[in-house]
Design goal:
There is one protein chain. The chain starts with a helix and ends in a 6-residue tail after the last helix. By secondary structure, the protein is α/β, with parallel strands linked by helices. A six-stranded mixed beta sheet has the order 2-1-3-10-4-11, with helices on both faces. The protein has 13 helices and eleven strands. It has two domains: 169 residues, 3-Layer(aba) Sandwich (D-Maltodextrin-Binding Protein, domain 2), CATH 3.40.190; 97 residues, D-Maltodextrin-Binding Protein, domain 2 (3-Layer(aba) Sandwich). The longest helix has 32 residues.
């Protein structure tokens, strides 16, 4: 009887321990599953594992060869090494970057799809009101990669030796034609902003991209051209184009001898080109923070900074909050210029 009682007691104790273990396991499972009620299960799983689950896609929202593609390909190997995960550049061009950006806006918010965007990111909402996504609501700012001046340049044989010469001509009835990469481009908006605010007669000549613009600019078929340092610098270096002014508030390292538009009598004028990384809006905050930190880390690498400088880009970096504030400001500024000047997309 004593033996049977002891056996029963031990059996009861084993059962008790099993029930206790199950209770602990249930509580642990509940703790893991609880956050799923607040968001996507896959997003939660990826946030825990990131960036170990799968390759990271970096969508370049313009075709190969342009500045967005170049920036993405400069970042790719450095991010891959820093994160310890494969990073793939995927070019998705079209509609001034809105096609690729729209794909990212609708992507799974798991931290494995990001986009490298250009300054058109802030212009497209005003120029393309029928876009199938909301730039402000459907995308999260991760980091500003860098900024670059737009350059106002004249053909070497042009009568415009300084920006003041071009402004003087723009005060006349005949005005001054100027070429850009297209309707609604930053160059178009910047000159429209300057002209409207100062009653200057600059006449827009839109081209379908940088190649056609440069062909006519270096041939002297258009008196003035405006484009990024990346686009114009080779032709300025060759002596075919003369830089007259840059559109940023400060002179740029790539063209230290060229004055700013602000220095040329238009105080406060600032219209930078810029590149940034964005993500789907619902990517977990922890993942956005890690990606922001990774981008800032690689931007501090001397070789990355040197390669970006070679494209005429000055490294910026900073927090995701500062990126969001900057992009919001750009959206607001250019929406007003588009409306005030009745600018339409091509």
């Amino acid at each position: 009887m004593a033996f049977d009682a002891m056996r029963v007691s031990r059996g009861a104790w084993a059962t008790h321990r099993a029930l206790a273990a199950r209770a602990v396991a249930a509580l642990a499972a509940a703790a893991v599953l609880a956050p799923l009620a607040l968001g996507s299960p896959s997003a939660w799983a990826q946030a825990v594992a990131w960036p170990k689950a799968q390759p990271i896609k970096l969508v370049a929202v313009f075709p190969p060869g342009g500045s967005v593609d170049q920036v993405a390909r400069i970042l790719q190997p450095a991010l891959q090494q820093h994160l310890g995960q494969t990073v793939v550049v995927d070019n998705r061009g079209g509609a001034s970057g809105s096609i690729g950006t729209g794909q990212v806006a609708k992507a799974e918010p798991d931290g494995y799809t990001f986009a490298v965007v250009f300054d058109t990111h802030a212009v497209n909402p005003a120029l393309q009101p029928a876009m199938p996504f909301d730039t402000r609501k459907d995308l999260a700012s991760v980091a500003i990669i860098g900024t670059s001046a737009m350059v106002v340049a004249a053909h070497v044989d042009s009568p415009y030796k300084t920006f003041g010469d071009a402004v003087a001509a723009a005060r006349t009835r005949n005005g001054v034609p100027y070429g850009t990469i297209g309707n609604g481009s930053l160059g178009h908006l910047a000159v429209s902003l300057l002209g409207r605010a100062n009653n200057l007669n600059f006449q827009h000549v839109p081209y379908r991209g940088g190649g056609p613009l440069m062909n006519d600019a270096v041939a002297g078929h258009v008196p003035l051209s405006i484009g990024s340092v990346f686009l114009l610098k080779p032709h300025m270096d060759s002596g075919k184009l003369r830089p007259l002014a840059v559109t940023t508030s400060q002179r740029v390292a790539a063209l230290p001898q060229v004055p700013t538009v602000a220095e040329s009598g238009f105080a406060g004028f600032d219209a930078p080109a810029w590149w940034a990384v964005v993500a789907p809006a619902r990517v977990p905050a922890a993942v956005l923070k890690q990606m922001n930190e990774a981008i800032n880390a690689v931007l501090r690498q001397p070789d990355v900074g040197a390669r970006l400088a070679g494209q005429g880009i000055e490294v910026r970096g900073g927090s995701a909050d500062s990126a969001r504030t900057f992009i919001e400001g750009q959206i607001t500024t250019w929406a007003k210029v588009v409306k005030d000047n009745d600018i339409k997309a091509d």
